[in-house]
């Protein structure tokens, strides 16, 4: 999914990096009475903002295409007119949204280690659920992807495989928690008394 991330970041930076085009873009959005007045800025330092950036670019994609066509720079946004690329973008937008929700949960106030572990386990279960649903062409947890008129079977299989790899990566990275599951259960039980 790195090519999708790179393309979206490049698109956002193209709009935001120069003052005049950025002001013109904001004015354009205002003239077409867009719900949003700007694209969000993405930085690697705040990588968790990627989900919000992707969601905003998705919401503004038609306006972005119109703006670049008006400026006769359609090469800058040709990927936003490619349905194959759009399905990858939509899937990644949905996935980043799910990951941002997890991040908000585990960084919430008054979180104990057992609470965080419960959120992580629930997310791993969700990844399995999502992969199983994609295997059956179910897109109920991928609303952005579901808005694409027709996503081919090969793409869905790739997304399913990606979710399985992500699940494996979660298993690998959080294997220490699995090793102390009994201790966490005791801690949870005593804390609830």
| Spatial extent as radius of gyration | 20 Å
Low-confidence stretches: none
Q: Report the strand count.
A: 0
Question: What's the shape?
Answer: elongated
Q: Return the structural class.
A: mainly alpha
Number of separate structural domains: 2
Number of helices: 9
Strand content: under 5%
Which H/E pattern describes the elements? HHHHHHHHH
Estimate the mean pLDDT confidence.
83
Cα separation of the termini: 45 Å
Largest sheet: none
Describe the structure.
- The longest helix is centred in the middle third of the chain and has 24 residues, at 83-106.
- Helix 3 packs antiparallel against helix 4 (83-106) and helix 5 (113-135) runs antiparallel to helix 7 (153-173).
- The protein folds into two domains: 1-81, no CATH class; 82-192, no CATH class.
- By secondary structure, the protein is mainly alpha-helical.
- The chain has helices at residues 2-16, 19-31, 50-70, 83-106, 113-135, 143-146, 153-173, 175-179, 181-192.
- It is elongated and about 65 Å long.
- It has nine helices and no strands.
- The mean pLDDT is 83.
- This is General transcription factor II-I repeat domain-containing protein 2A.
């Amino acid at each position: 999914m790195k090519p999708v991330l790179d393309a979206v970041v490049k698109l956002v930076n193209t709009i935001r990096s120069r003052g005049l085009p950025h002001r013109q873009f904001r004015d354009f959005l205002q003239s077409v009475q867009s719900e949003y007045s700007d694209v969000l800025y993405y930085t690697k330092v705040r990588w968790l903002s990627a989900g919000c950036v992707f969601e905003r670019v998705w919401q503004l994609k038609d306006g972005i295409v119109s703006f670049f066509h008006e400026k006769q720079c359609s090469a800058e946004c040709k990927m936003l007119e490619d349905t194959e690329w759009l399905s990858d973008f939509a899937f990644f937008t949905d996935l980043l949204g799910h990951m941002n929700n997890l991040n908000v949960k585990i960084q919430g106030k008054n979180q104990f280690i057992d609470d965080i572990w419960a959120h992580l386990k629930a997310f791993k279960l969700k990844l399995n659920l999502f992969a199983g649903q994609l295997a059956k062409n179910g897109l109920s947890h991928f609303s952005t992807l579901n808005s694409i008129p027709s996503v081919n079977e090969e793409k869905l299989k790739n997304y399913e495989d990606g979710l399985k790899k992500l699940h494996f990566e979660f298993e690998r990275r959080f294997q220490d928690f699995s090793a102390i599951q009994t201790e966490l259960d005791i801690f949870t039980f005593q804390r609830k008394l």
